[in-house]
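Lab notebook, bench 4. The sequencing result for the construct came back, and we need a structural model before the next group meeting so we can plan mutations. Quick request posted to the team channel:

Model the 3D structure of this chain.
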Amino acid sequence: MRFIVLTVLALLALPATPASAQSGPSDRSIADRLPLFAKNNCQQIRDPGNQLFCGDAELAAAAEKLSAAIEARLARLPDRLPGIEENAIWTRQRNLGCGIVGQTAIRTDDFDRVRACLLKVTEERTAILRDPDFDCLAANTAAGAVICADPSLALAETELNGQVLGLIGKLDPTAGRFAFAEYGRWTRERDRKCNLVGKENVPLQELESAEDCLGDYLKHKTGEIAAAKGDPKKVFGRQVAARIPDTDAVDFCAARIHAANSCGNFLRINRVYALDSQMTDQEAQVTGEIEMVVLAPFTTCSKVASNCTGTCWDPRTGLPQPGTAGKERSGEAFNVTRRLRIQRTFAFVKAADGWRCREDELAPVNSGTAGGGS
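Done. Here's the predicted structure in C-alpha cell form:
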C-alpha cells in the first residue's frame, strides 16, 4: 500500500505530459541555461517549472530533499492521500508565486529570478514539512481544527493513527486497501456524528461543543484496537451489514466499491449524504450524494471513471455521460484537486444481521457535477 501511494505521489511531482511539438526558440534559450537539459531529456516536459527542476542540478537536489520530506510526512499519516492533494495545490501556488503561468515559456530575462524563487520556496517547503506539527497546523477540516487546538485530542489522535498504521502494515496489499478505505469511512462517520460536516469556515470557538464527541470517538476506537491485541482482522472488515439503510450504510457501500477498484489511487471520498430512500420489508434503494476529490489524473472516460464515479464525463460541461460508462476512450483527463459530486442509487437487501449493500448491483448515476481544481 505504501508503495502504491508513493507511486501516485511521484506522478504528481511530475504532472506534465510529453510534448508532441518540437522545442521553440524560447525553449532553446532556456535550455542553454540548464546544464542537464539535454542529458535528462528535459525537452519532453511541457511544464516550464518542471523543466528547470529537470535541467538544473541545484534545483534537482532541492526537489529530491523535498520528496524525502514528503515521504516522511506520508509515513506519519494513516490516511496519506489528503497529503497528496495538499501537495498538488502547493505546487500550483508555487508556480504562480514564482511567475510561471500555465505552460507559457519562461523568458530569458526572467530566468534568474524564477530559478531563485523556485529554489527558495522549495527549501522553505522542505523545512515546513519536516516539522512534526505541520499536519496539525495544516488541518483543513473542522474536526482537524478542533483536534489541533486541544493538546489532549491531538495526542489521542496521534496515538490512534500510530496504532492504525501498525495494524494495516500487517495486512497484504489488497486487505490493506480495504482497511485504509474503512479508516476513511470511520473519520467521515465521526464527523457526521459530531456535527462537524461542512463547518470548515465556522469560528473555532463555535465548535467547542464537539470536543467531547471527538474525545469519545478517539477513546472508543483506541479501545477497540487495544482489545484486538494486534490482530487487524478483529478491527477491519467486520462490518458487512448496516442497522438501517441510511447515510452510514451508503458510505460503507461506497468505501467498499472504491477499495475493490483501487479508486484510492485516484480519488478520495470527502463526504457522503443519503438524499432519499425507498424501502420494503426485504429490499431498499437509497440515493446518496458522494463528493470526491481527484488525487491523480485519470481520463474522463475510462475504467477508473466508470468504476469509481459510475459514469464517464463531459470535460467541457463537467456533467456526467451515463450512456458511455465503461467505454475506454482517449481524451481529456481530470486534474488533481478537481472535485466530483455524484448522485447514485444503492441497492440493499435485508439479511439476518441487517441491511447488506449489493455492491455489484448499482443503478446508473442519476446526476453529477465536476468542478473546482484547474
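The mean pLDDT is 82.
Will bring this to the meeting.
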